[in-house]
Write a structure and sequence with these properties.
Radius of gyration: 16 Å
Number of strands: 5
Shape: elongated
Number of helices: 5
Distance between the termini: 51 Å
Strand content: 15-25%
Structural class: alpha+beta
Length: 161
């Protein structure tokens, strides 16, 4: 076992991990941050997306030890300081960008990374960026609409599907 230390959602944390412990396991089992989901264990679905040093990564493909010293942000860190929904989360709620909710944490984290890189993406750019995130329920239309709304764009003309 090796001690790993990192900053998660603005808080310094540490724990003992095996070399093979994945970041998603450390977050969920070691820190109790269960908002990051495990969907496929093969880096296909995107439910485990978190930010490591500002970059969106699939935490099922990163060893916890490789995140030592890093700044990690999970879905739990996306809320406002008062605990209310952050802007992207609120847009997902307002535009019904979720159904079962399983993919939602990864979608929100990927959307945040997209908007940090491209504050006013087109619909095509949103769809392209979210290609690595699988949603089995929504058909993506309202997710895309939510991301566009979170970017401050008027989505009132976008027809519901």
């Amino acid at each position: 076992m090796t001690k790993v230390t990192m900053t998660v959602n603005g808080r310094a944390v540490s724990g003992e991990v095996e070399g093979r412990t994945l970041l998603v396991q450390f977050l969920r089992e070691g820190l109790g941050l269960t908002g990051t989901h495990v969907g496929c264990d093969t880096s296909q679905c995107g439910s485990c997306v978190v930010h490591v040093d500002g970059r969106a990564v699939k935490s099922c493909t990163v060893f916890a030890l490789d995140a030592a010293g890093a700044e990690v942000r999970t879905i739990e860190g996306m809320a406002n300081a008062d605990g209310s929904l952050g802007p992207i989360q609120q847009a997902f709620q307002d535009h019904h960008g979720l159904q079962c909710g399983f993919c939602t944490p990864g979608m929100v984290m990927s959307s945040a990374a997209l908007l940090a890189e491209n504050p006013k993406p087109t619909e095509a750019e949103v769809r392209d960026y979210l290609e690595g995130n699988i949603c089995r329920c929504t058909g993506y239309h309202n997710i895309v609409k939510a991301v566009l709304a979170a970017s401050g764009q008027d989505v009132s003309a976008i027809a519901a599907e």
